[in-house]
Amino acid sequence: MDRRQALKLTSVALGGSVIGAELFLAGCKGNTTESVLFSEEVIALLDEVGETILPETEGSPGAKSANIGLFMKDMVTDCYSVKEQPIFMKGIHTLNNTAIDQFSSGFLELSPEERLGLLLEFDKEAQSRDDDETPHFFTMMKQLTILGYFTSEPGATQALRYNPTPGKFIGCIPYKKGDKAWA
Amino acid sequence: MKNESDVFDAIVIGSGISGGWAAKELCEQGLKTLVLERGRQVEHNKDYPTANMHPWEFKYRGGMSRDFNEKNPLITRAAGFGADTAHFFVEDKDHPYVQEKPFDWIRGYQVGGRSIIWGRACQRWSEYEFKAPNKYGYGIEWPIGYNDIAPWYSHVEKFIGVCGNEDGIEAMPDGEFLPPFGFNCVEQHMQDKMKEHFPDRHLVHARWAHLTEPKEIHLEQGRGKCQARNLCMRGCPFGGYFSSVSTTLPWAKKTGNLTLRPFSVVHSIIYDEKTGKASGVKVIDTNTKEEIIFKARIIFLNASALNSNLILLNSRSDRFPHGLGNDNGLLGKYICFHIYRGSADGRMEGFDNKYFFGRNPSEPILANFRNLKELEMDFKGGYTTFCGAYRNRKGSVDANSAQLGADFKHALSEPGDWYIYMYMQGETIPKKENRVYLSKDQTDQWGIPLLVTDVDYDENDDKMVADFIEQAEDMLEKIGCTEILSRDNKQPPGLDIHEMGGVRMGKNPNDSLLNEWNQMHLCKNVFVTDGACMTSTGNQSPSILYMALTARAATYAAEEFKKGTL
Questions:
Q1: pLDDT tens digits along A20-66
Q2: Per-domain residue ranges for chain B?
Q3: What average pLDDT does chain B have?
Q4: pLDDT score, position A31
Q5: Chain B environment of A153 (Cβ under 8 Å)
Q6: pTM of the predicted model, to two decimals?
Q7: Burial, B147: exposed, middle or buried (Cβ in 10 Å; 0-12, 13-18, 19+)?
Q8: Which CATH superfamily is domain B2-144+241-338+431-455+499-563 in?
Q9: How far A65 CA lies from chain B's nearest CA (Å)?
Q10: Which residue stretches of chain B have pLDDT < 50?
Q11: How close A176 gets to chain B, by Cα (Å)?
Q12: pLDDT at B7
């Protein structure tokens, strides 16, 4: 039990919990499964949302390479509570409709710069909300992207350093700014 | 009902951490031994389906689905439970029990029991812990002391492999250690600062059941060096940590004296009035529902603390209408546990240029410093503190940095700040009111009465938690932490997974159930050597004491068996 305790403390120390993560530990209060529909178009849109949050950079691919849209679908469908699911689903429409209002075309048709600009607005809106009861849809998308990407094969092995079998533990070694974290 | 014609010399009920040791010792002594396990078979390596899985191979990256969580509010709270270990825990619906007061009973029903998913901390008890309950009036006298058990600690440590440093501290005697895992840079700082500010508080290296440098005996067991993966609870393909499945059971099997029978729920122990001893056990095959009687001259009860209570309470006869050996009415009483409610953490600056290699599967230990040599606090008992420092991938960026995009990704790809944490493992007072008993009207799927738990914290526990929190905050501050946070999570008892007592050892048959050899006072061929036997809880992680008590009792039982007295 000792390590688990440490993990719990870690999530506390990192500030705020991952939405849905409390389910892993405490179980969920919801009691019905709402059917959540993710079309191919929605998954393609979520892939691009993820790619905008964590894009391809030198040395590592972006969140799209981690099939982040499908990961969001699985998490929202299977792990989110029935209260959280509609927030996420409505968010997809809000996001796309805002793109149409501002640029007269859907999110998928925007340039990378336009996508980033749009998502930064939602991020600002999400970060200014301090109501834990009803999280902002963009907080959900951002958290799922970060969780899904850094635990994916491309994320863990290319953006981070993944060593499944270290072979030994060395407690204290130098670190220089820019070195990647262990996955 | 079927009577099994094979007569065994010994039956061991349960294949977990203590049952595995009973099997090993009895088989090595030449006794034909039957090990009964209520759950399924688990074989080393063959039945570790997740052992080599990568994070991305778990659909929800470690968590479970909402549906599973909703159906399993109990088991999903357990330490170590996750998508990678779920198959080593029972599901809530399969194994009901009745909670008179909230009590989280965490179970792992399979060959190897919870030894597959245990925490692996292996500190020795000190003589102070054996003596304190009687000395300070919160318990009866243990029938043994440190000197009785010390050689058996050595016996167990050498066989299972325990890493640690020889520190020469009184609260936690040294053992037969393999080299310790090193501190990380911040943990070294913690130890230095503790020495400076709290010379009487000893922060030392983990004493953990890992093969940091395997010896000949471990290689003979087919085990190898710990690879610092820290994925232990999935089962270790290298045999890097100790479990019954990797070590004691295969060892027992090699003697040719072991018969292991999974899917065998023990209903009761059968008492023979003519001989004044137990003649065997009644088993229900969980697949066929068939009732079978197995006979033997010695019975070791290692079903895990509360299930051992349940089996004895359900072993009713004309001679013992209230449960086997229960003339004094104390069976099922004095249930105790460890307090894990208090924890604290803080951020540590100044080590940005330090990192580590590999994943340490263990944690530094801060030895008990309360009520050690005298009763000095307004509460009784002591606490051990587990602690450590960690540096994870950066979780968030500050407000002035890029919040999305390439720079954001780069920032999150680097390590974040260092944090230090501490949490307590506190002694509880054995009390008659904390008890388990059998339900009068509810039974499980095999017709065995459900266990009722009536166990709670008391004022002593609350005072201890408050003291721990105050001390932890103070120590973190002296170590140099900022942003110190502390909490009393008020978790129900049981979630510690250190349930103990109910069949306690003692000198006097009037106030205990077992003698100094873990032998029932009133039924000499029944030995109880799991957590149920505990007279008090001490503040050390208990598993290695169960193993040492089991090895000691099994050696005694085999000698008596050979003399013909059992």
A1: 443 333 333 333 333 458 999 999 999 999 999 999 999 999 999 99
A2: 2-144+241-338+431-455+499-563, 165-205+340-426+457-492
A3: 97
A4: 34
A5: 54, 56
A6: 0.94
A7: exposed
A8: FAD/NAD(P)-binding domain (3.50.50.60)
A9: 13
A10: none
A11: 6
A12: 82
